[in-house]
Write a structure and sequence with these properties.
171 residues, 9 helices, 0% strand, mainly alpha
C-alpha cells in the first residue's frame, strides 16, 4: 500500500465503518502513514485524532503540530481549526493576532467558517466604532458575510435573510 490517497480513503472508511468494520485505531495508523506520504487531508485528520483522542491517546501538542504543518502547507480546513485553537486557547496559548492570521489565510481560499468569523470580527469593530461616535469606514464585514454565504455558511445565509426581512439592505 504505497498510495497516500488510497490509504487516506481506506482510513476514512475504517473511521466511519463504511464497507468494513469500524476500527479507529487502524484508521489512525493509516491516516498517519498517508500523512507521512504527503496527503494533506490525512494530516488534517491525524491532527483531529490527536485532538480528540480517536484511535490514539489525546495529545494537544501533537494535534497543534499537525494542524500547523497542514495549515502551513495551505490546507484551509486546518488553517480554520488552528485559528480557532488560537482564538479559544485550545492546546495553545490564546493569541488573537495569530488566530486572525490563520482565519485570513483560510478566507483567501473561500473557507466559509473563516469568512464568517472575519465578518463577525469586522461587524463587532463597526459596532464599537458606531457606539463611540467614530466615523465608520467602509467595512469588509458585509463582503465577508456575502462570501461566507455564497460558499455555504448557514450562519451567514441566515444573517443575510434576516437583514432583508428586517429591511436592512446590505450595500
Amino acid at each position: 500500500l504505497g498510495y497516500p490517497d488510497a490509504l487516506f480513503n481506506r482510513a476514512v472508511c475504517l473511521m466511519l465503518g463504511h464497507g468494513t468494520t469500524k476500527d479507529s485505531i487502524e484508521a489512525f495508523r493509516q491516516f498517519r502513514t498517508a500523512a507521512n506520504m504527503g496527503n494533506k487531508q490525512a494530516l488534517h485528520n491525524l491532527a483531529g485524532c490527536y485532538m480528540h483522542g480517536v484511535g490514539t491517546h489525546k495529545n494537544d501538542s501533537l494535534a497543534i503540530a499537525c494542524y500547523t504543518l497542514s495549515a502551513s502547507n495551505g490546507y484551509a480546513p486546518s488553517q480554520t481549526i488552528l485559528a480557532d485553537c488560537y482564538l479559544r486557547g485550545t492546546g495553545v496559548e490564546k493569541d488573537s493576532t495569530t488566530a486572525y492570521h490563520w482565519f485570513g489565510k483560510a478566507a483567501e481560499q473561500n473557507e466559509p467558517i473563516a469568512l464568517f468569523t472575519l465578518a463577525e470580527k469586522h461587524a463587532k469593530q463597526d459596532s464599537i466604532a458606531a457606539l463611540s461616535k467614530r466615523k465608520l469606514r467602509k467595512s469588509p464585514a458585509i463582503d465577508y458575510m456575502r462570501k461566507a454565504a455564497r460558499y455555504g455558511s448557514k450562519e451567514a445565509q441566515r444573517f443575510i435573510v434576516k437583514c432583508f426581512a428586517e429591511g436592512k439592505y446590505l450595500k
